[in-house]
Specification:
One of its GO terms (molecular function) is ATP binding. It is found in: Cell membrane. The structure is a single chain. With 309 residues, the protein is of the alpha/beta class. Helix content is 41%, strand content 22%. It has a single domain, classed as P-loop containing nucleotide triphosphate hydrolases (Rossmann fold), CATH 3.40.50. The protein contains 13 helices and eleven strands. It has a six-stranded mixed β-sheet with strand order 7-8-9-4-10-11, sandwiched between helices. Bound molecules: adenosine-5'-triphosphate. The site of adenosine-5'-triphosphate (ATP) has 13 residues, from α4. The site of adenosine-5'-triphosphate has 13 residues, from α4.
Length: 309
């Protein structure tokens, strides 16, 4: 239930239901972790997110993230890659201020002129979902099993916009079609347990696109999709993202997705940034051994003959 509250809180699915107490339990879900991260993504255009020397330490003072700094501009996408356990998810959670309070989070996160790490909790709750959307690879816990998907989507949209139910449905329906749902009306009448993990991932992406957050943070958001559906969804998603000039932080192990979505890439290893490069550099001239190996593997999978070095 606590896991559910994370996604509910982040995406704002608690609109008409009384989920507020659940959202408070969120940090406990992640147990004792502390990170220190410092990263900056700098691209052309207006900076909308600036992260300075962000670090997280466990209660035992073990560093999980160290001195991460980057600046992310409007409409740009930063890919986060790195081995399992490198700290990608912790970094995403730290930006949303969802790290367990037992951990020590240091540094500064500026989002559109607001200092997220020192913002009152109430203000931070408003930012999650509407201004910063969050998607994870495990969508099931985000949904209440006793309401239909349609009811929950409409409630969520109405919590953020002054739409009628009919207007909300009008917003959702074309977005569901773009997320490869051939029959949105049928889908909206289903209960969450009647849908596959891949279908729920697409519902979550649809909802996030409907809320039009300035910044999307997506942690392996399409892992449950088959290759054909994934391609269709990613094509539509990238088009909508570009149309709405949304910025994005994208956690993935898949260089195909990085190539399609990202402008720049941070490579994390054991909680530190070991490489920060443009997506072109990633595919032509990576420096770090992890990045080189990842590229070599990617080329083999895609039928290339070069070993990437
Ligand atoms: N609740 C927790 N308590 C203590 N340490 C944790 C906790 N959650 C994560 N960690 C540690 O934090 C570090 C970063 O974990 P994180 O989940 O961010 O890695 P990741 O890069 O997202 O990995 P993956 O690709 O497998 O999802 C790891 O060393 C992990 O063991």
């Amino acid at each position: 239930m606590r896991v559910a509250s994370i996604f509910i809180a982040v995406l704002g699915l608690w609109s008409f239901r009384d989920y507020s107490s659940l959202s408070l339990s969120l940090p406990l879900t992640y147990g004792p972790i502390i990170c220190e991260i410092d990263f900056t993504l700098k691209s052309r255009g207006d900076d909308m997110l600036e992260v300075n020397r962000l670090s997280i330490y466990t209660p035992e003072q073990k560093p999980i993230l160290q001195n991460i700094s980057f600046t992310l501009s409007k409409g740009k996408t930063l890919g986060l890659i790195g081995m399992s356990g490198a700290g990608k998810t912790m970094l995403s959670l730290a930006l949303l201020r969802l790290v367990n309070p037992m951990f020590h989070v240091k540094g500064d996160v500026q989002f559109q002129g607001k200092s997220l790490l020192s913002l009152p909790s109430k203000d931070m709750s408003r930012i999650r979902g509407k201004e910063i959307g969050f998607l994870t690879q495990h969508p099931h816990p985000a949904f209440d099993p006793i309401y239909t998907v349609g009811e929950q989507m409409i409630d969520t949209i109405r919590a953020h916009f002054s739409y009628t139910k009919k207007e909300s449905r009008k917003v959702i329906t074309p977005l569901l079609r773009s997320m490869a749902f051939r029959d949105p009306e049928y889908l909206l009448q289903r209960y969450p347990f009647e849908l596959s993990g891949g279908m729920l991932q697409r519902v979550m992406i649809t909802l996030m696109l409907a809320l039009k957050p300035t910044l999307m943070i997506a942690d392996e958001p399409t892992t449950a999709l088959d290759t054909v559906t994934q391609r269709e969804v990613l094509d539509q998603w990238s088009t909508l993202r570009d149309d709405q000039e949304q910025s994005m932080i994208l956690v993935t192990h898949d260089l195909n997705i990085i190539g399609k979505f990202a402008d720049e890439v941070l490579v994390l290893q054991s909680g530190v940034v070991v490489e920060h490069l443009t997506v072109e550099q990633l595919f032509t001239n990576p420096s770090h051994s992890y990045t080189k190996n990842l590229l070599r593997f990617y080329r083999k999978l895609n039928g290339g003959t070069s070993d990437g070095d």
